[in-house]
Each structure stands twice: as C-alpha cells, then as structure tokens.
Amino acid sequence: MIYKLIELSVILALLIPIAAMLVWVERRLIGIWQDRLGPNRVGPFGILQSLADLLKILGKDEFTPKFADKVIFIAAPVIAATTVLMSFVVVPFSDTIGISDLNIGVLFFLAMTSLAVYGVVLAGWASKNKYALLGSMRAAAQTISYEVFMGLSVMGVVLITGSFNLRDIVVAQQDGWFIQSQLIGFVVFLVAGIAESHRLPFDLPEAETELTAGFHTEYSGLKFALFFLGEYLGVTLISAMSVTLFFGGYLPPGFLPSEWANMIPSLVWFIGKVFILIMFFILLRTSLPRPRFDQLLEFGWKVMLPLALFNLLLTAVLKLTGVIGGVHA
C-alpha cells in the first residue's frame, strides 16, 4: 500500500511538469514547421518559457465575477483537471509501473472522459456570460457525441482480447500490435480523442474568433491554469491510451531482435511512442482549418458512427471465423 502511494505521488508529480513542458515543445515544433524561431529568449532554446508563463499566470489577479456562481465557478476547473489526472490511474506505463491494475480499466477511462465535460459545462454556466455559455454548450454536444464513437472504437480491441484490463490488452499484443487489425478503430479513436480534448481543428468550444475564449472567458490566474493543464494532460492521456490499445503499450516493436529490444527499458518504449503521437497532435494544429460546428457534429454521426459500427461488426465476424485470435485473461 505504501509503495502504491509513493508510485501515485511520483507519477502525479511528473505529469504536471510534463504538461507544462508540452507548451514549450508545441511552440518550438510549430515554429520549426512554420519556418520561424518560436520561443528562444528565456533559457537555452527558450526551455524556461513554460516556467515564465506559469509565473505570469500565477501572478495575475484571482478574479471572480460578481455575477458568477462562486462555488461552482471555482469547482469547475478543479473538476476538469482532476478527471484527466484520474484517468492515468489505469494506464500501464511499463511492465512494472502502473498505479492500478483494474479489471475494468477501459470502462474507467471512458467514465473519466465522460465526467470531464461537467467541468466545462459548469464553468460556462457559472460564469453567467453568453460567450462562456455558448462555449460550454458546444463542449457538451461535442464531447457527448464523440465519446459514443470513442467507446465503440475500443470494443474491437476488447473483443479480440476478451478483457477490459489495459495490461491484459498490452500483453495480448506480444505477437502483433492491434493497429494491424484495428486500423479503422484507431482512426475513429484518434479523431474522437481530438474532439474530446478540444484540440485544433476541433477546438470549437473555445474558438477565439467567435466566442472570445469560450467556456473559460471569465477565468484568470490559477483557475485558468487548471483548464490549461487539463487540456495538455488530455493530449498526453489520449496519446497514452492510443499507444496502450493499438501500438503495444510498453512492448518493443516486433521486428526488432529481442536482444536489441530488451536493451531499452519498457518505460522508454512507452514514452517514445507517446511522444510521437503528441507530435502528431501538434502537427494537426499547424495544418488543418477549423470546421463549422454543424460540420463537426455531422461528420461524427454520419461518418464516425458508421465506421465504428462497421469496425465492430467486422472484428466480430473475423473473431468468430477464426481469422483473428485473441488472448483471454
């Protein structure tokens, strides 16, 4: 029990600085891809820019509007950040590192991502601001819609492995990553993950050109920092779950000789895969335009839902006919 508490404390203590450093990584990579410098003044290569931004945010006035519902206004960003942090509880970071080995790990992850929308909706409602309210309504419609497709997209993996346990799912990929048989499921999961984390091009709940800042228009200081933290933790979470479900988790690539693969710790393999997916998230921000909100929902129900159902049906047929096997826990 003491070991698990220490492990939990260490993982949480590392996740928050990692999310802060992602701000610098994103700005540097966008600068490279757009042929400009990016942050390069504070520290070597601008690496201390995130710390400077944090100090600036924490130095701002903790303003709560007089017309806001103060209790809910303060609770909303805490809910948004806490639900994302809770989702990391079931992620197996390596063959020995992982906070909880829940038998319902996939369901727990889906439940936490569903609860995250409460923080956004409550923030918009408690602000008593029309732009914040519109942003929160967009977030609710977007999140509730795309979590349906996200849940269906992982059911193919569950069918193959016969388990909701994330560590069992990783072990089942020893003979081949699920990206080979679940390519459609991965695409649906990734698109749904982008929509769930409100990242470009699906950042419509906080579209600056339309809603000033969306659901967090009235937020500043530490409360705004919690929303900011939740967003970047969400990117890390979706990347970590994509790696766990479709890219073998902490397992090395199968094409490498075992003596070479075993030279690198399983945690390093996991972090490397997650970082590659995070870079893909960042690349999307620099290359895709933002759709209209009606186009986003139409795309979800008319394209993502049929694809997710087709993938589930195809996986079930292939499993019954013995074309693809599975590892039963």
UniProtKB/TrEMBL annotation:
Membrane topology: Multi-pass membrane protein
Keywords: Cell membrane, Membrane, NAD, Oxidoreductase, Quinone, Translocase, Transmembrane, Transmembrane helix, Ubiquinone
Domain of life: Bacteria
InterPro entries named among the record's database cross-references: NADH_UbQ_OxRdtase_su1/FPO, NADH_UbQ_OxRdtase_su1_CS
Subcellular location: Cell membrane; Membrane
Catalysed conversion reaction: a quinone + NADH + 5 H(+)(in) = a quinol + NAD(+) + 4 H(+)(out)
EC id: 7.1.1.-
Transmembrane portions of the chain: 6-25, 71-93, 105-125, 146-165, 177-195, 224-247, 267-284, 305-327
GO molecular function, one term: NADH dehydrogenase (quinone) (non-electrogenic) activity
Quaternary organization: NDH-1 is composed of 14 different subunits. Subunits NuoA, H, J, K, L, M, N constitute the membrane sector of the complex.
UniProt cross-references to NCBIfam families, sorted A to Z: PRK06076.1-1 (NF004740), PRK06076.1-2 (NF004741)
Family: Belongs to the complex I subunit 1 family.
Role this protein plays: NDH-1 shuttles electrons from NADH, via FMN and iron-sulfur (Fe-S) centers, to quinones in the respiratory chain. The immediate electron acceptor for the enzyme in this species is believed to be ubiquinone. Couples the redox reaction to proton translocation (for every two electrons transferred, four hydrogen ions are translocated across the cytoplasmic membrane), and thus conserves the redox energy in a proton gradient. This subunit may bind ubiquinone.
UniProt-recorded name of the protein: NADH-quinone oxidoreductase subunit H
Species this chain originates from: Thalassotalea fonticola
